[in-house]
Amino acid sequence: MCTLHLIRTSAFADNKLQQCIALLEESDQIVLIDDGVYNVNHNLIDSVSNSISALSEHIQARGLSSNNIKQMSYTDLVKATEKAGKVITWQ
Amino acid sequence: MTTFALIVSTPPTDNKTHTALKFAQTLIAQEHVITGVFFYHDGVMNANQLVQTPSDELNLMVAWQEFNQQTNTPLHLCITAGERRGLTDSNDDQYNHNIAPNFTISGLGELVVLTSQADKVVQL
Amino acid sequence: MSTHQVKHYAIVNTTASFDSLKGKESLDAALILASYEMPVSLFFIGDGVYQTLTSQNAETIKAKDYIATFKALGFYDIDDIYVCSESLQKRGIKEVNVLTEGQCCSNERLKAKLKQCDIVLTF
Predict the structure, then answer these.
(1) pTM of the full predicted structure?
(2) pLDDT for res C4
(3) Chains with ≥3 Cβ pairs under 8 A against C?
(4) In this model, does residue C120 exceed pLDDT 70?
(5) Chain C residues interacting with chain A (CB cutoff of 8 angstroms)
(6) Of A51, B56, B94, C18, which sits 20 to 30 A from C34 (CA to CA)?
(7) Do A87 and B19 count as a contact with CB atoms less than 8 A apart?
(8) Which residues of C51-68 are buried (b: 16+ CB within 10 A; e: fewer)?
């Protein structure tokens, strides 16, 4: 079963996203939340072929646009955690 | 229906704690069951009654209490982590019990029980 | 009678030893899990690898020496300890300087070990 990775920090400030990417399996999914949504504009994201989404409310609150990254609601996030085998939080 | 255990490790001064609350509320709205929310690390500060939140800001302690009242989701507090951060359940003269009602005073053993019973564990 | 199911836990340490309580409170959680007879695997990645250095001296800065407990993990039946080789290498740490109970692993091996766990907690 796939793992859902929640990224809560900006890769411009620390290396949590990098640590997550180093341990990604092919079927794993990444969701950017909190300051993690700043990663929509980080070039580390471009190196990842996994599914990446960002929490819509957190994108909007920070005045960002999500470029090519899918936005999701809290309801979508709950559904994604339900489907995932386990959740790993990077904060 | 899926059962979830949540671990909250951020203080009420972090917006990340609002994320945890909203996630918990969404779980209930989707008819899932939360075996319990376990407050650990700086998350224990969410139970501190002496925290003064400006009236035009979200008071997370009150919000967690309302969440507990509305959903009967247990809110467990790691007392060891709490005592280190100024929380006390003592009513001795030199202390003043400052843990908000609706929070259950627990230990790490409760973390084991909550997480092992749940289908999914989400740490926020 | 036990009211809980046995699950395999991964405790992933990503922060260095003393600046915050994370390392200490992570170890506390690992020991309790083990005392409830849950299988526990410890992972040290990123700055977390600094926790495994044998030459640390917490007393110098009046920090709690929870590091000493790492030597007793076997007593708690925590035998699966994985230290990220890449993180050590990036930080210029030789593998001989980390706690001998730990196994230094490639990212591939870390992934495989993480995959075996049911619940992952990061600190």
Answers:
(1) 0.96
(2) 64
(3) A, B
(4) yes
(5) 12, 14, 45-46, 86, 107, 110-111, 114-115, 117-120, 122
(6) C18
(7) no
(8) bbbeebeeeeeebeebbe
Nearest-CA distance C56 → chain B (Å)? 24
- Catalytic-role residue among B7, B63, B78, B111: B78
- Quickly tell me which residue has 């990663």 as its tokens: A39
Would you say residue C21 lies in a domain?
A: yes
According to DSSP, residue B100 is labeled: P
Give CA–CA dist C87/C102, Å, rounded: 14
Q: Which helix (H) or strand (E) holds C122?
A: strand C119-122
Chains that touch B (3 or more CB pairs under 8 A): A, C
C52 in any annotated domain: yes
The least confident of B42-56, B80-94, C106-120 is B80-94
pLDDT in tens, B47-89: 999 999 999 999 999 999 999 999 999 999 999 999 999 999 9
Domain topology for B3-123: Hypothetical Protein Ychn; Chain: A, (3.40.1260)
Q: Check if B71 is active-site.
A: no
In a domain, C4, yes or no: no
- Looking at domain A3-90, its CATH superfamily turns out to be DsrEFH-like (3.40.1260.10)
